[in-house]
Structure formats: structure tokens, C-alpha cells
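Hypothesis: this fold can be encoded by more than one sequence.
Test: take the C-alpha cells below, design a sequence, compare later.
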């Protein structure tokens, strides 16, 4: 492979190699490009992985095993038939059964699920568990729907999906718009259709097979990873430090919870409408009440805390997000993809941020990542830092298969150990391939190697 001198050359080379449309705005292309650029040191050092080699490993890795697309019809509360599209991208099962979340959001399409599925392959590989990579979901919007409508949609969705999944085949979980409630409805339908009570979904409520700590796992894991990374990089811990968090869903709220447990001070959170800045530290019980129970806008936060600041999206800086202009020691983007732009990266750098940890999947744009990489900010990429959720999903599969129930403390200890192991592995891999301190390259190389080795060993 010829030497790549800059990102533009690399894009052209990658597009040529893989016969792809060079579409800048495609999130799948963005995710794939990041990985392929990262693993060049591996290609250079080992012919076995190089694309020109006969294994064709890259072409095989970037092509999903299959993309399943189906119609979901359901009756709303006015007895009107509604139609949505459902998907499951079964990307790669070299290491174990397909595994990855389901997203219910109006923006869901094939490209987004391909990007998420691709990321999931390497993330799952980093956990060290026997898990393949997949992602699925629907353009259904749970917002504003009654509980009964959500149940009917989930049931209709599973009537199609059940044909393609199984505890040894494909084990979906939650993601944006899919929490314990939706998983429980889908599990109920799967059980009725198949008459089989088995670990086919993770993120189930505890009382019928879920693992303790699955709801907390991603957010807690993000903070465990950050603590370890700061320690390895010789920086001060999060204790007593101001932190900024975006999002107000599962990942963000549990990251905030763990930050408080470690005596850090999380001062922000966001939703799709705006941002809360509470300089004394955000009121977590109130946030849980607003977002997990009542499912309302964050704007209501200031009714209880008029001294806090609410900034609606319309007042965000141009091409940026107000949350990333609040000075902090640690920044935690935990909402959605591409929510941290170059404008935001410049603000974080200007404000002296020490660490940025991606809780959401691919929250930083390519431009933002390159800018951050040119500084000494400790940057933890999503596929390593947010792997705690899928790790505990793996623990849930183990508990289901062996009919066991682990305690909260047991799961928490295993989660912490897993996140620290991932962090060490990523850091050591970066060192081994001459990119010390670069956790993006370290994560991509370590994850890719594990999957590629299995694919080569298993043959075509
Ligand atoms: P939730 O649905 O629980 O929460 C998502 C949060 O992000 C909500 O506060 C939502 O706002 C906000 N949000 C969603 N879309 C946008 C947008 N376009 N602009 C601004 N804000 C937005 O999802 P999760 O917390 O589960 O997931 C968050 C991220 O973490 C996703 O990238 C997901 O893929 C990733 N992730 C999740 C895992 C998990 O275990 N749940 C595991 C690994 C990764 P609003 O309340 O207004 O809708």
C-alpha cells in the first residue's frame, strides 16, 4: 500500500480500494474512514492484514453479512393503521452471535444502522467477550406515543424480527428510544410467538432475566474508562473537578450519577431542545424524574431551579453547541452522533479541557477529532469508552445461559475491571504501533486485530 500523506489522499485511496462513493456526509463512510486511517500502522507492520493480501479482510469487514429490512404495521390509539420500517443489520459474527442495540428514532435509516453496526463489531471485540456486531431499529418515534401504542409497535416489530434472532444467533438490546419498557414488550411478544423463554434480548427488567446494573452500565463504564485513562496519562483524577455532560438519556444520566459518586461536579446536560447549566451541579433526582419518568423537556428543570440556566437550541453558537463552551476538566458527549463539531472542539481547547470521553456513538465530527488529536487533550473514543453497556449485556447472556443471578456489586466489579482492561489494552496497543497516547488508533487497531484474526482463521 502506498504511503498516505494526508487525509484527502487517504480518502481517495480508501474510496479507490473499496469501490465506494466518496460521500462526505455519510455517517457509515465517516466511521469506516476513521477506522481505516487508524489501522494503517498495522497494515504497514504486518502483510497479513493488508488489503492487497489475499484474505481481502477489509472488503469483508466493511460489508455487512446481511441487511434485513421489513414493514411494521400497527394500530394507533385512534384505530388508524400506521406503517414504519424496521431493520436489522447483521454485520459480523466472527467472534460470537450478532450483538447490538435497537434504535427507535425518526432519523433511523440504513446508513445510520450500518455505521452503528460497524462500530459495534470493533467495540464488542474490545470487551474480550465472544460477541459479534449488529445494529437495528426503526424510524418509529416513541415520543408523544401512549404506553399502549409503544406496546403495539414493539409487538408488531418483534413479529417480524423474531425470524432472524436467537440466543446463539443474534441478541439485540436497547439504544436511543429503546429502554427497559420497550425491551420488555418485545421480549413478551418473542416468548408468545416462539413459546421459548430464552436470553434473546438483553436489557430486560431484572425480575425476568435482566442483569442488575445493565441500565447503569454504559454511563458508569464511560466514567471508569476516563478515570483509568487519566491515571495512565499522569493527569489528576476527576475528584472535585467540574465536568460537562451532553444528553439526558440512559448514558448521560448514569455518567452523571457515577461522576457524583467519584465526587466530581457535573454541571450540564442537554436534550434535543436545549441545555441546562447548573453551576452548583445538576440535580440528578430531578433529571431522572423529568426524563426517565415523565419524559418531558429539560426546560422544566428551571421551574424547580430558577437559578440554573436554560439555553434553547436556537440560541446555540452557529455550527456549535452551548454545552461545549462551559469550561470543564472533563467533557462527556453522551447524546448522539456528530454533536461535537469543530466549533465545539475549538471552545473545549480554548477552555483548557483535560479529557474528552465519547459516551455516545461517534459524537465527534471527523474535523473535530483531528483538531483534538493535535492537542494534548486525553481523548477516549466511543468504541472503547462506551463498551460497558455491551459488556454487561454479555454478562446478562452468561447469567441467562447458566440460570444465575449476579449481585449488583459483582456486576459492578466486573464492569470496572472490564473497562480498565479495555483502557490498558488500547493504551498498550497504541504504544506498540508507535502512536502512544492515541486512544483512537489504539482502539481501532486492537479491535480490528481481534476480529480480523478470527475471520482469517475461520476462512471464507
Ligand atoms: P436515550 O434515548 O436514552 O437518550 C438520548 C439523549 O440524547 C436524549 O436526551 C435525547 O434528547 C438526546 N438526543 C437524541 N438525539 C438528539 C439529537 N439529534 N440532538 C440532540 N440531542 C439528541 O439514548 P441513550 O442514552 O441510550 O444513547 C445515547 C447515545 O449513547 C447514542 O449515541 C447511543 O447509540 C449510545 N450508546 C448507548 C448505549 C446504551 O447502553 N444505551 C450503549 C452504547 C452507546 P430527547 O430527550 O429530547 O430525546
Amino acid at each position: 500500500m502506498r504511503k498516505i500523506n494526508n487525509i484527502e489522499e487517504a480518502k481517495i485511496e480508501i474510496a479507490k480500494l473499496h469501490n465506494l462513493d466518496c460521500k462526505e456526509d455519510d455517517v457509515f463512510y465517516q466511521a469506516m474512514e476513521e477506522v481505516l486511517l487508524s489501522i494503517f500502522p498495522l497494515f504497514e507492520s504486518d502483510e497479513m492484514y493488508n488489503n492487497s493480501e489475499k484474505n481481502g479482510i477489509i472488503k469483508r469487514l466493511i460489508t455487512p453479512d446481511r441487511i434485513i429490512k421489513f414493514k411494521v404495521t400497527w394500530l394507533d390509539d385512534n384505530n388508524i393503521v400506521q406503517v414504519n420500517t424496521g431493520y436489522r443489520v447483521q454485520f459480523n459474527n466472527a467472534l460470537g452471535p450478532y450483538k447490538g442495540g435497537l434504535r427507535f428514532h425518526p432519523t433511523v435509516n440504513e446508513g445510520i444502522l450500518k455505521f452503528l453496526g460497524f462500530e459495534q463489531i470493533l467495540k464488542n471485540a474490545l470487551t474480550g467477550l465472544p460477541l459479534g456486531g449488529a445494529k437495528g431499529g426503526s424510524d418509529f418515534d416513541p415520543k408523544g406515543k401512549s404506553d399502549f401504542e409503544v406496546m403495539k409497535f414493539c409487538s408488531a416489530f418483534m413479529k417480524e424480527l423474531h425470524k432472524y434472532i436467537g440466543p446463539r444467533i443474534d441478541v439485540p438490546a436497547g439504544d436511543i428510544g429503546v429502554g427497559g419498557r420497550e425491551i420488555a414488550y418485545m421480549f413478551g411478544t418473542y416468548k408468545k410467538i416462539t413459546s421459548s423463554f430464552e436470553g434473546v434480548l438483553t436489557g430486560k427488567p431484572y425480575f425476568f432475566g435482566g442483569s442488575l446494573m445493565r441500565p447503569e452500565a454504559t454511563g458508569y463504564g464511560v466514567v471508569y474508562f476516563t478515570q483509568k485513562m487519566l491515571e495512565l496519562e499522569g493527569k489528576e483524577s476527576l475528584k472535585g473537578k467540574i465536568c460537562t455532560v451532553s444528553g439526558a438519556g440512559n448514558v448521560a444520566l448514569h455518567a452523571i450519577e457515577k461522576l457524583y459518586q467519584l465526587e466530581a461536579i457535573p454541571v450540564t446536560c442537554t436534550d434535543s431542545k436545549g441545555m441546562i447549566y447548573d453551576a452548583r451541579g445538576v440535580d440528578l433526582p430531578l433529571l431522572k424524574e423529568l426524563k426517565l419518568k415523565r419524559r418531558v423537556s429539560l426546560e422544566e428543570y428551571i421551574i424547580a431551579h430558577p437559578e440554573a440556566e436554560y439555553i434553547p437550541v436556537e440560541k446555540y453558537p452557529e455550527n456549535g453547541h452551548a454545552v461545549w463552551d462551559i469550561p470543564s476538566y472533563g467533557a462527556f458527549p453522551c447524546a448522539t452522533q456528530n454533536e461535537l463539531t469543530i466549533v465545539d472542539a475549538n471552545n473545549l481547547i480554548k477552555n483548557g479541557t483535560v479529557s474528552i470521553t465519547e459516551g455516545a456513538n461517534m459524537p465527534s465530527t471527523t474535523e473535530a477529532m483531528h483538531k483534538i488529536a493535535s492537542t494534548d487533550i486525553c481523548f477516549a473514543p466511543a468504541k472503547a469508552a462506551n463498551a460497558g453497556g455491551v459488556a454487561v449485556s454479555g454478562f446478562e447472556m452468561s447469567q441467562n445461559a447458566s440460570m444465575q443471578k449476579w449481585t449488583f456489586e459483582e456486576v459492578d466489579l466486573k464492569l470496572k475491571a472490564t473497562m480498565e482492561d479495555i483502557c490498558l489494552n488500547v493504551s498498550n496497543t497504541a504504544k506498540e504501533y508507535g502512536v502512544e497516547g492515541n486512544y483512537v488508533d489504539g482502539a481501532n487497531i486492537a479491535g480490528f486485530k481481534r476480529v480480523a484474526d478470527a475471520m482469517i482463521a475461520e476462512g471464507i
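Residues 7-55 form one domain. DSSP finds 17 helices and 13 strands in the chain.
Hypothesis status: open.
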